[in-house]
Amino acid sequence: MSKQQAISPGKNFFAGGFGGVCLVFAGHPLDTIKVRIQTMPVPGPGESPLYRGTFDCFKQTLAKEGFKGLYKGMAAPIIGVTPMFAVCFFGFGLGKKLQQKTPDDVLTYPQLFAAGMLSGVFTTAIMAPGERIKCLLQAAKGEVKYAGPMDCVKQLYKESGIRGIYRGTALTLMRDVPASGMYFMTYEWLKRLLTPEGKSPNELSVPSVLFAGGMAGIFNWAVAIPPDVLKSRFQTAPEGKYPNGFRDVLRELLREEGVASLYKGFTAVMLRAFPANAACFLGFEMAMKFLNWAAPGL
Predict the structure, then answer these.
(1) What pLDDT shows up at residue 42?
(2) Of 265, 255, 278, which is closest to residue 231 (Cα–Cα)?
(3) Among 235, 228, 230, 222, which residue's Cα sits nearest to residue 252?
(4) pLDDT band at residue 290, thresholds of 50, 70 and 90?
(5) 277 vs 134: CA distance, rounded Å
(6) What pTM was estimated for this model as a whole?
(7) What's the start-to-end Cα distance of the chain, in Å?
(8) Is residue 180 within 8 Å of residue 119, measured between CB atoms?
(9) What is the pLDDT of residues 144-191, one digit of tens each?
């Protein structure tokens, strides 16, 4: 195998930010569907559910709100996603670098998983408020409580201070730390698997990068869905509804809807995971190639 490139936190930061923007544009419509399915009210006796599934939610959203409805709340993740993915890829790069004795060391899969978990810790500070705002805007069906992301932040701060904006941070950590470990480990594993003998993983073809990135997204969400359902419920619930935090949400969901409720929005998540994360890693790899060409010494 050819000599691997030394990890550059600076390049990881900028390339990760570009990858994150690609992810949001590719995946936001299905993210909106996911949040709406996860937060829809439980139907009463004899009532039909608000949405019969992913495609019904998609059709209803398009019919009532048009194409724009699918991109509701996108400003918050776009504003947050560039620094968030920049920090995410920086954290992964740092996690790898901390475990290397020399720049040529090839890390084991448990080491890559640990580096990925570190990236999940890094991103939570940015992710938690962005997720809270995004979920509130996405869950709004028709009624306009918030004029936009900044108005949402102002109202939340007025109602309950900084704690209101950061509500759901523990659940964001519970989702992102193990899921990020799985995300990056799977991507690196598939890159190695798809790399022809004697070549470097940095020379992978576009279809191979898209496949590895897309599958990394699938594995990431397979781990992340249950805590994500709890997080969406908790972050969109009225103040004081769950005094004991996620334990109350978990108890209510299991009591009223059973274990299957922890996988609400599964179809929307998985339909989104492949193209969104394929776009993210392709954006990251393209940006890295550009940065390596434009600033080889950085």
Answers:
(1) 84
(2) 265
(3) 230
(4) very high
(5) 19
(6) 0.80
(7) 24
(8) yes
(9) 788 888 899 999 999 889 988 998 898 999 999 999 999 999 999 999
The answer to whether the beta carbons of residues 170 and 245 sit under 8 Å apart is yes
Whole-angstrom distance, CA of residue 16 vs CA of residue 10: 10
184: its two tokens:
């990056």
Q: Is 194 helix (H, G, I), strand (E, B) or coil?
A: helix
Closest CA relative to residue 187, chosen from 36, 69, 16, 11? 16
Q: What are all long-range contacts of 152-156, with beta carbons under 8 Å and residues at least 24 apart? A: 152/76, 153/129, 156/132
DSSP assignment string, the chain: -PPPPPP-HHHHHHHHHHHHHHHHHHHHHHHHHHHHHHHPPPP-TTPPPS-SSHHHHHHHHHHHHHHHHHTTT-HHHHHHHHHHHHHHHHHHHHHHHHH-SSTTPPPPHHHHHHHHHHHHHHHHHHHHHHHHHHHHHHH--S--S-SSHHHHHHHHHHHHHHHHHTTTHHHHHHHHHHHHHHHHHHHHHHHHHHSPTT--GGG--HHHHHHHHHHHHHHHHHHHHHHHHHHHHHHHSPTTS-TTTHHHHHHHHHHHH-GGGGGTTHHHHHHHHHHHHHHHHHHHHHHHHHHHHH-TT-
